Amino acid sequence: MATTLNPYLNFREGTREVMEFYTSVFGGELTLSTFAEMGGMGQDESEQDKVMHSQLRTRGGMTLMAADVPASMPIGPNGTISLSGDDEAELRGYWDGLTAGGTVTVPLEKAPWGDSFGMCTDRFGIDWMVNIAGGAS
Asked: Could you tell me the domains of the chain?
């Protein structure tokens, strides 16, 4: 099996809603496991329904994972997720989905390097960059 690199997002709570949103944007198959379903994992009773692990796999081969971080553990920043390719219709569709209810920080338009590029923060506070190769406008 080849090595893959998969973004793994962390939230204090709400991972189920976040991943259902990303499923609506990207399509694919979402799997979720709660702490309770995994035998409790030593977590407080009030956190048993939180998502211990989730994974979205798209038909195009993308994988995105996320979890609710228990209150007893520190949570850090998530960074930025970048989408790039040359399928303008597909990437603009993702852009439209991600910006719905979010904030556009750099409009998706022709960049100095010739591609179309944009940046946004989705409604869950995750930063995204989208780059459409080939000089799309």
From this structure: 8-68 (3.10.180.10), 80-132 (3.10.180.10)
User: What residue has token string 């869950």?
Assistant: 124
Classified as helix, coil or strand, 30 is: strand
DSSP assignment letter at 70 = P
* Residue 134: band (very low, low, confident or very high) from pLDDT cuts 50, 70, 90: confident
Average pLDDT for the chain: 91
Distance CA 15, CA 74 (A): 16
HSE-up (13 A, CA, CB side) for residue 69: 12
Q: What is the pTM of this model?
A: 0.88
- Mean pLDDT, residues 118-131: 96
DSSP classification of residue 38: G
